[in-house]
Amino acid sequence: MAEFEKLLKTVFYYPDANSIAMxxxxxxxxxxxxxxxxxxxxxxxxxxxxxxxxxxxxASKLALLINNAAQNSLLAVRNDGNVGIGTSTPTYRLExxxxxxxxxxxxxxxxxxxxxxxxxxGELTTNGNITVNGNIAANGNISxxGNIAANGxxxxxxxxxxxxxxxxxxxxxxxxxLLGHSSRRGSLGFSPGRALVDLRRELxxxxxxxxxxxxxxxxxxxxxxxRELKENIEEFSNEEAAAILANLNPVKFNLKADDRKAPHxxxxxxxxxxxxxxxxxxxxxxxxxxxxxxxxxxxQGKAIASLTESVTLLQTAFRKFVEDAAQxxxxxxxxxxxxxxxxxxxxxxxxxxxxxxxxxxxxxGLPTRRRKP
Length: 373
Description:
- The protein is an alpha/beta fold.
- Helix content is 15%, strand content 18%.
- The strands form six sheets. The chain has a five-stranded mixed beta sheet with strand order 1-2-3-4-5, with no helix packed on it.
- A hairpin with a 2-residue loop joins strand 2 (20-24) and strand 3 (27-32).
- The longest helix has 42 residues, at 286-327.
């Protein structure tokens, strides 16, 4: 132990021929060796140019604190390794009270902002989760191999796009998924309409009356109809199709939510057969109606083909009859004797019926009428 340590005084002394040190209250506080190494609070400063060592491992104590003239904290380093910029009580490895700019890469397990904003002009890459309790705005692309959870808004620029699940399955969870343009604010000028609503067994598109003018799409809208998805496949009888078609009543109507009252054609689900409606009688399955119409059209096609064949046979027979009649020679009129009266002579174009000869005996089975002598 050096002599000054016994004196408990503030002194400068020479630990060796090439070093100088300062001590207060009997403990060395500063040492500078011959190589220019500075040591604050430690004698082991031969590895670093400047080495600062706290006198305790108490996490609530600071190993380094730099303040400005107003005694505002500029930089603080706690004994547990937490670093604070703009705060003297950092609770994380790096806590910044204010804004900071990084032109290179930032690698961290967790980045949190205490109610402020996090602006990125480059790329943000993470193998973990990104949790945002406020708003997140991106002028570029956001790619996520995991989940993106936002309790606030997730906004994209006008020319940007949101891509979900390229070669794998992704999930978007929401009670109601609202789609709308910022300048239109929904179908009736209020909030965006509910585009997709998951009702457990049903997925509602254009839910309720949010978009009374309907949905427009370009291209083909395909329904999965492969045999691999079906079972109990049976023939649909003509009687069933005829019964359903007989009870379908097309109507003309207006939608209550449509302020323009545009005319529509369709059906009323409550008045339609069960086989073409949903279980709650609130919707009509137009695919089922197409199946009914297809069945009836096919049967009508068979009936029309049969009638066409019958008419063809009749036309052929009639033409043959006309042709045969045209080939027969015309019949010659009978010669009338001169003893006939002029009134009984045959005139051209007039048919004369021959009078039946009288018989002395009447028809068989009738009494005979004799001439008077």
